[in-house]
Amino acid sequence: MRYAAAYILITSGVLLFLNISAPIMIRKLTYTAQRNAILDKAQLIVSTFSNSSRLDAEVVRDATQSINDLHTTRVVFTDAGAYCIYDSLDAENNQERLILYPEVTMALDGKDAVYIRYEDGVIITKAAMPIVAYNRIIGAVYLLERDADQAALIDSLQKMFFWISVGLELLVIAVSILFSALFSHRIRGLFLSVRKLHGGDYSVRLPERGHDEVSQLSAAFNKLAKRLDQSEQVRKQFVSNASHELKTPLASIKLLTDSILQNDMDQGTMREFVADVGNEADRLTRLSAKLLELTRLDSQPHEEKELTIIRPVADRVLRMLTPVARTQQIRLNLDCPEDIVVLATADDLYQILFNLVENGIKYNTSGGEVWIRASVTADSIIIAVEDTGLGIPDSEKPHIFERFYRVDKARSRKAGGAGLGLSIVYDMVVRNDGSVTVTDREGGGSCFRLSFPNHPTPEEELP
Ligand code: ADP
Question: From CA 202, how far away is CA 352, in angstroms rounded?
Fold first, then answer.
């Protein structure tokens, strides 16, 4: 409404100015034309006396014969003493009458006089001019014109201006109100949607009509709402999965402790139950560590990447996992040249390899093997983690990097997994500009293939 008011105010000002100034200008032009016309007429009259030495009724009568077609309302001739010689309004009674009009006085003083006035729908023009013969003022001529036509024309023009302005102004008011109502309706829609979004309703969307700024704003808003909607879904899914994962070991612990408290059990069974409580607690610890890792990945800005030599990191991973592998009679192997480096933080590389090798052990069979193999191509650093385990069905491969996704739920849970290990791997690989794929290993098992860009490594940059 403020915009509409501004438009209306500006156009009103312009129209008011035109309404005042245009008639003034027209009147000025008309007055100038009238003034010139009456002076021309007076000059014409005066010129007819250029050869007369005196001015009397007879001379004037002769001259007035030719004046009849001048369309003048009144013509008066006076002698040098301002006595009337001839008056067209009162032609019979001219004698001994002093004409004391200011214009006549001025003319007898030797100056031309013109006076224009608008009165009651009529333009009144008066002019007087001295009649000079042989350098002597012998009288004056006085003309008066009453022009109603010009005045009516000016009046009608003024009225026309006024009504056109009123029409224009009404149009401007209507259009301004319409446009500002439309505009503010859309802005209000946007505002209400922002409020809804702020209140947690991420399903809100705005219509995207046209290409103007409001439509662009609506499109940007919709994108934002969609993103928020998606991340809210992910968040909800994550929270519900996480709480479900936490609930299971907690329920087991509760069940086990209740059994220990209620039953009169022998020492051996009790030890078994307590060991199970310990296992569940371990599982909880692992789960919360992974959840923390994921939250850290989501929220923390990534540290500067560094050139990391792969072999020592892979060595450390295998050393850490050797005890677990040994309990399941699984052999861990490393096939990695000493000098291969990758541009990734050492901590991320450790975590990636740890999760992959841990899975290679978890989803393997007794007597199986796991390998870490690293190699270099022209533009990539390839690290493969292979195992002789169960393998992953093709239909499951696209999903295994999703959070909380497990192929064989019973086996995974038994092995202490929550479906988070590979999603951590995926996030970490991606944030180090790499990619990860999974294929079947020839001869059974799975092969996880990591690929990182191969950056040129100047000697001095090596850690
Ligand atoms: P989990 O913590 O359950 O191991 P992951 O995200 O690490 O979760 O793995 C997701 C699922 O992918 C696992 O439940 C498992 O079924 C399958 N998986 C992962 N690695 C392997 C592998 N090396 N061999 C066979 N299956 C695997």
Answer: 34
- pTM over cut 0.85: no
Distance 172 CA to ligand 1 centre (A): 70
- In this structure, which residue's CA is closest to atom 4 in ligand 1? 417
Mean pLDDT of 70-98: 82
Q: How many CB atoms lie within 10 A of CB 326?
A: 12
Nearest CA to ligand 1 atom 21: 359
Q: Which residues line ligand 1 (CB under 6 A)?
A: 355, 359-360, 362-363, 387, 389-390, 392, 400, 405-408, 412, 417-423, 446
444-463 per-position pLDDT tens digit? 999 999 999 997 655 545 55
Task: Give the CA distances from residue 31 to residues 21, 114, 133, 162, in Å, rounded to whole numbers and listed in that order.
Answer: 15, 11, 30, 22
Residue of 365, 343, 363 whose CA lies nearest to 421: 363
- Closest atom of ligand 1 to CA, residue 290: 2
By CB neighbour count within 10 A (0-12 exposed, 13-18 middle, 19+ buried), where does 290 fall? Answer: buried
pLDDT for 456 equals 62
Q: How far is the CA of 254 from the centre of ligand 1 (A)?
A: 27
Decide: 343 and 432 in contact? Cβ < 8 Å: yes
Q: Select 213-296's CATH number: 3.30.160.100, 1.10.287.130, 3.30.2130.30, 2.60.120.430.
A: 1.10.287.130
d(CA 3, CA 275): 76
Domain topology for 2-155: Beta-Lactamase (3.30.450)
For 242-261, what is the mean pLDDT?
Answer: 87
Which part of the chain has CATH 1.10.287.130?
A: 213-296
